Amino acid sequence: KAGVTQTPRYLIKTRGQQVTLSCSPISGHRSVSWYQQTPGQGLQFLFEYFSETQRNKGNFPGRFSGRQFSNSRSEMNVSTLELGDSALYLCASSLDTGGDSPLHFGNGTRLTVT
Amino acid sequence: SQQGEEDPQALSIQEGENATMNCSYKTSINNLQWYRQNSGRGLVHLILIRSNEREKHSGRLRVTLDTSKKSSSLLITASRAADTASYFCATTRNTDKLIFGTGTRLQVFP
Question: In this complex, do A105 and B42 lie within 8 Å of one another by their Cβ atoms?
Fold first, then answer.
């Protein structure tokens, strides 16, 4: 089976712009979770989608949003980018929701905001 | 915010030695998972241990869980240079999201 695919791999954006990141889960996985990883804050949970519904949300401002399509592919959007949004954004898929089955991670999108 | 904290933050050993990493968490859990991350890449799932289990093995990995102390340990036996990575524990309670700890950076010298 193909693994989790995240695109693009690298992004450079300017403050104030918006960005959309894409994630294709493993075939058959219905849950997609997003995490932000920075050296200072570590791995922070953003949100989780299951069958096109947001199941859980982390403690991030409303500038961070996401969605899941009927084929389980997911996108996350960050509007009005700030310097502090520079991070590795990781997407992970799993068979079930709620952290009860292992997460399969993509290699991430490295976002740099200048 | 992190649910778990790994200890030590960094660990350096020689090939062939054993590596032990500890994870402490704050609230009751459904399960605890360990992941490995090579530099700049995604995390790889290593092992999942449920709250009613005390010990699990997978190859050279041994995980223990002590729910009374809210702690877990990951033992890697006979370490190899390829084991060099960051290791994270992650916990979940009820049907909530998976929350990761702060990680241990393991360096294995050939």
Answer: yes
Identify whether the C-beta of residue A45 lies closer than 8 Å to the C-beta of residue B97: yes
CB B18 within 8 A of CB B78: yes
List all residues 6 or more positions away from A6 whose beta carbon is below 8 Å from its beta carbon: A21, A22, A23, A24, A89, A90, A91, A106, A107, A108, A109
> In Å, how far is B5's CA from the nearest CA of chain A?
11
pLDDT, tens only, A52-110: 999 989 999 999 999 999 999 999 999 999 999 999 999 999 998 767 789 999 999 99
d(CA A60, CA A101): 24
Is A84 near chain B, with CB under 8 Å?
A: no
Say how far apart CA B32 and CA A94 lie, in whole Å. 15
Q: Residue A102: which of B41, B48, B95 has the nearest Cβ?
A: B48
**Helices and strands, counts by H and E, chain A:** 0, 11
